[in-house]
Amino acid sequence: MNTEKLTAGWSFRTSAPGFDVDDELTVYVTASDGDVLARVGDTALTVHGAPAGVTEGTKIAVRVSDFDASTHTGDVEYLRTVGESTY
């Protein structure tokens, strides 16, 4: 069996995705005591400009303003709330 042919084009997702400045994402807030944070896998994003009603579990749209691929951390700007708390 030719496994190279069978697996051609396969790729695996990383647990620590990277982002480019100005990318727009939809994320869930994972912490809101102190800094508002969102995690995508092992990547941690600090959310700036989120209104007081944004709490853990809220689905929000954000724009990447800074990202460090070596530490898998970044800063994002709050754009809008997409959905209410999931719990």
TrEMBL record:
Residues 1-79 form the DUF7513 domain. This is DUF7513 domain-containing protein. InterPro entries: DUF7513 (IPR055935). It holds the Pfam family DUF7513.
